[in-house]
Amino acid sequence: MKSTLKSLIREELSNITGQLSSFHDSLTYFNDCFENLKKDNEKFNTTMKKLESDNNELRGTVTDLTNRLSLLEQTSLKMCSMLLGWRNSIVDNNRPRSIITKLRSPRQRDALLAAVASFNKQNPKNKLNSTHLGHEGLSTPVFVAEHLTPTNKSLHAAARLKSRDLSYKFVWVRNGRVYVRKDEFSQAIQIKNIDSLKHME
Predict the structure, then answer these.
(1) Domain ranges, ordered by start, for the chain
(2) Are the CB atoms for 175 and 187 separated by under 8 Å?
(3) How far is it, in rounded angstroms, from Cα 199 to Cα 178?
(4) Cβ(119)–Cβ(125) under 8 Å?
(5) What DSSP string runs through 93-138?
(6) 130 contacts: CB under 8 Å, gap ≥ 6
(7) Where residue 83 falls among pLDDT bands split at 50, 70, 90?
(8) Contacts of 162 by beta carbon, 8 Å cutoff, 6+ apart
(9) pLDDT of residue 159
(10) Counting beta carbons within 10 angstroms of the beta carbon of residue 5, is it exposed (0 to 12), middle (13 to 18) or buried (19 or more)?
(11) Whether 91 contacts 64, CB under 8 Å
(12) Is the Cβ–Cβ distance between 109 and 175 less than 8 Å?
């Protein structure tokens, strides 16, 4: 009886030992899998951080190159754009006609802009208009401004829109650069790119 009982116990213990050994092997396997996943995740995170860093660096480079290209384009223009206020519903679809005139130098451009500003200041009730240019008929305003590249034109429009929303009093262009100012007592802010609009408060 005792011999049979011992044999049964020995056999049961042998089964338990085998199960424990199998469980240990499975646990070791899953632990190895977990460690491999952990290493892969660490590599993935490292790669992602490097990609984010490279992406930010590339964005900065693209922004810098875009600003340089825009500046070169604006400098090469050396033009002044005169927006004439008279309308022709047949030819211009009832919109002001633009005339672009190329000047010899930025100095001439600045002199023309200053002259127009001075004239309008001295004649607030009779600012520059089509009759001053010899156009007969209805007197309509004539606006004179720097001719901007498409990039700076979009930037100028965005700055005007943001200035209106934030009640900025002044938005202007000087040497192809866009500036804004909250009021007479505030410091001017140069709007170099769309991100610069974030500095407006």
Answers:
(1) 1-76, 78-147, 148-201
(2) no
(3) 14
(4) no
(5) TTSPEEEEEE-S-HHHHHHHHHHHHHHHHH-TTS-SBGGGGT--SS
(6) 84, 85, 86, 137, 138, 139, 140, 141, 142
(7) very low
(8) 168, 180, 197, 200
(9) 93
(10) exposed
(11) no
(12) no
Cβ contact 184:169 at 8 Å: yes
Q: What is the pTM of this model?
A: 0.55
Q: What are phi and psi of 99, to 5 degrees?
A: -120, 125
C-alpha torsion sign, points 16, 17, 18, 22: positive
Q: What is the DSSP letter of 141?
A: B
Burial of 80 (0-12, 13-18, 19+ CB in 10 A): buried
Mean pLDDT over all residues of the chain? Answer: 80
The dihedrals phi and psi of 81, each to the nearest 5 degrees, come to: -100, 125
147 with 77: CB under 8 angstroms? yes
| Residues 126-179: tens digit of each pLDDT | 998 888 888 777 788 888 888 888 888 889 999 999 999 999 999 988 878 899
Based on the number of CB atoms within 10 Å of its own CB, is 85 exposed (0-12), middle (13-18) or buried (19 or more)?
middle
